[in-house]
């Protein structure tokens, strides 16, 4: 039995220190790229691209519905521009959230815009999953910083404090 196993049932014990934060669809496989990480990345890329294509197909039907309703060219143009602008803004926001933690207040205020521009979010997810798990770089940097801080704290505490020599002020 290794030192890292739980003596009660032989299962691996949780290592001391900070634990990696799981990512959606990846869990903690992003830490060491194990347990089907590459297949998951491929699945996420294909899934997000397929979802974006299906969303565009549905938006096409919505546009055709506007044409059938004969609402006019100006309203049709406004709808197309609205979806294009919201998708571009959602792409930028989603892409940026992969490298920095978004502000929760700003995130809640942009919820409507992100809902309208969901195609942009799906495309950002697709493009990021071609190189890494979406959000992996941010989570890796935070995890490594937390591990370094933990290691510094643990090594500083080594030794028996009762045997510590006291300084005498003269």
What average pLDDT do the residues reach?
84
Cα-atom radius of gyration: 25 Å
Number of strands: 0
* Shape category: elongated
> Spans with pLDDT under 50 lasting ≥5 residues?
none
Element-level helix/strand string: HHHHHH
As a percent range, the share of strand residues is under 5%
Total helices: the number is 6
- The assembly state of the depicted protein chains is single chain
Helical percent range? 55-70%
Biggest sheet, in brief?
Answer: none
The rounded distance between the terminal residues' Cα atoms is 53 Å
Q: By helix and strand content, what is the structural category?
A: mainly alpha
Keywords: Membrane, Transmembrane, Transmembrane helix
Region (Disordered): 1-21, 149-170
Biased composition (Low complexity): 1-14
Organism: Actinospica acidiphila
């Amino acid at each position: 039995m290794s030192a890292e196993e739980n003596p009660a049932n032989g299962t691996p014990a949780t290592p001391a220190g900070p634990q990696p934060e799981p990512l959606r669809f990846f869990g903690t496989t992003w830490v060491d790229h194990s347990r089907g990480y590459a297949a998951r990345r491929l699945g996420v890329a294909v899934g997000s691209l397929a979802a974006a294509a299906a969303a565009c197909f549905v938006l096409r039907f919505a546009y055709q519905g506007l044409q059938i309703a004969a609402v006019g060219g100006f309203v049709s143009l406004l709808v197309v521009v609205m979806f294009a602008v919201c998708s571009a803004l959602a792409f930028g926001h989603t892409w940026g959230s992969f490298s920095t933690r978004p502000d929760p207040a700003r995130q809640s205020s942009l919820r409507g815009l992100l809902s309208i521009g969901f195609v942009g979010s799906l495309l950002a997810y697709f493009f990021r999953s071609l190189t890494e798990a979406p959000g992996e770089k941010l989570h890796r940097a935070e995890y490594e910083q937390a591990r370094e801080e933990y290691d510094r704290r643990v090594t500083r505490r080594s030794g028996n404090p009762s045997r510590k020599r006291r300084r005498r002020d003269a």
